[in-house]
Amino acid sequence: MVIATALYRGSHLVAGGAVVAQHQRDRLFPWLALVAAIAFTALIWFMAARHRRLVPWAVGLDVLVTGCLLPFGAYAWGGARAQESIAWVMLLGGSASAMAAVAFGARLLVVAVALLVATHLAGYLMVEADAAVTGAHLNALVFSAVVSWVLTWYLCRQGEQVDEANRRTLAAEAQRARFAERVAHHNALHDTVLATLTAIARGGVDANTSVMRERCAREAAYLRRLVEQADDRESASGVRAALEESVRAAEALGLRVTARYHEPPAVPGEIALAMARAATEALNNVRCHAGTGHAYLTAAGDSGRLIVTVVDRGRGFGTGSAGPRRSAAPEGSGGSEGSGGSARPVTGGIGLDRCVYARMRGVGGRAFVDSAPGEGVRVELRWPG
Amino acid sequence: MAGVITVAVVDDDRMLRDGIRSWFAGVEELRLVACAATVDELLAGPWEPPDVVLLDLMLRDDRPPADNIRRLRAAGSRVLMISVVADRDRIVSAISDGADGFLTKDHELSVLVEAVVEIAAGRTAHSPELAFALAYDRGSTRPRLSPQEREVLVGYASGLTLKATARRAGITVNTAKYYLDRVKAKYQEAGRPTYTKIDLATRVREDGWR
């Protein structure tokens, strides 16, 4: 509607410019009036471009000056005494009322149109125009407002309907995601906790073997996370679901994982996936090289940045000549990542670094690996980097 | 210190109480003197107040946890909170209310014993789950932490050992532990009850405003 009214005003200005250039070239005021009208139109457009809608006060100013004052100015100083010579100024009132219909609420619009009608009626009476011309013009004034108001209303309603439809689609999608998560949990519960409890209840299984105890501990950890998730006020988050999958995969391979989440910021799906894959890599590394069966995973936000850590308390490795707080070096630079390992197999460190660094950098994130002999390994993944 | 630490368990899960009894039977430095389902039951018993009480975070009795903790403290015991799941808001409240530590029930015996020993000596039993709850506390009354305190807290909460946490922060293990203790102290400071106007006036004086 902003563009439509702008075009409407533009046509009036062109018409006005043509009249002035043809018939009133030697007079100063018509030129001034034209410049003033253009200036106010420019102001409205500028404000509209900035605020992405028509700004009421700018339109109001235009209604008052272009719509109401210019006709009198044209009469007083422009020497317009006939209806032909004042008509182009009057035309501008039409586009002013159209813009008012877009920018104003109902009450203000009625006031603006009434004001325009009154001043234009007075203007035409002063130049003693035909009743038919006056009537037609006033009619145009009113219906410029009516037509643009109806169009605005219609477009707004259409827009609201589209928004509503979008909202419903998003809600349905979230519902589907929740449902999928629930099914995943049901499957996991069925394969783990339920299977274990059923086996013990049936008898014939020694529940006090170390294998069984470890299995119970892992499955208890999974249930614990489920309960804690339900306790949290945060809604289902994609990153959490993706990381949970990594954790469960590691648990299925026999690693005990203590995972804690605190309102991880929402990130695009592919970022969540990359984070989860990097976390899987880090958990694998704990399982294969740390010499401990227990890993910690945390996910939290830090001023809008998603930070995931995978930590173990295993044997760790030396980080060579670098200082205590070594940060991520670019992949392959000197091949130093983890290769200074004393206790840890060299290949493990390099594999971890390559995969994790490359994955995180591929999506605009960063990875940090920190370790010391006997102090475990800490892998930090962050996005954005 | 007499050498042997007396311990009691308050938990409404009988299986857990039995499990702890058989667990502690083999530990020389601890003696389990009482098992009860509620704090009332424990306080009504014929025994001396134990040095440390393991108190379940989610007891299904009618008393608010804060009340339970205060009464145990008033009786002369120190309190280690234990729970199956790490309900963070309740952990934070329990610390504010005077508990000296928190552990989830999935730890190994050695961790539990170490926590009891720490608390009996008047220190704090730190755990990653407690650090995580404090580091990401969303409560409106949370105290202001210094950047160093926060760094140590977040590091320890991520699962690092205290030693690794200290190394990353460039400080000694003792300093790292001191920071963790100070965070707990800040919470207990903020958790002092203010019931009456006289209490409030005392608080204001304590805070050095007058």
Which CATH top level class of the largest domain in chain B fits?
Alpha Beta
The CATH architecture classification of the largest domain in chain A is 2-Layer Sandwich
Number of folding domains of chain B? 2
Strand order of the largest sheet of chain A: 1-2-3-5-4
Assembly classification? heterodimer
Top CATH class of the largest domain in chain A: Alpha Beta
Let me know the average pLDDT of chain A. Answer: 81
Label the overall shape of chain B.
globular
**CATH architecture classification of the largest domain in chain B:** 3-Layer(aba) Sandwich
CATH homologous superfamily title of the largest domain in chain A: Histidine kinase-like ATPase, C-terminal domain
The major β-sheet of chain A equals:
5 strands, mixed
SSE sequence of chain A, one letter per element? HHHHHHHHEHEEHEE
Radius of gyration of chain B (Å): 17 Å
**Strand runs of chain A, count:** 5
The CATH topology of the largest domain in chain A is Heat Shock Protein 90
Our measurement of the CA-to-CA distance between the termini of chain A, rounded to an integer number of angstroms, reads 42 Å
Domains of chain A, number: 2
Q: Using the CA coordinates, give the radius of gyration of chain A.
A: 37 Å
Based on secondary structure, the structural category of chain B is alpha/beta
Q: Which terms would index this structure?
A:
heterodimer, A: 385 residues, alpha+beta, Heat Shock Protein 90, five-stranded mixed beta sheet, 10 helices, 5 strands, elongated, B: 210 residues, alpha/beta, Rossmann fold, five-stranded parallel beta sheet, 50% helix, globular
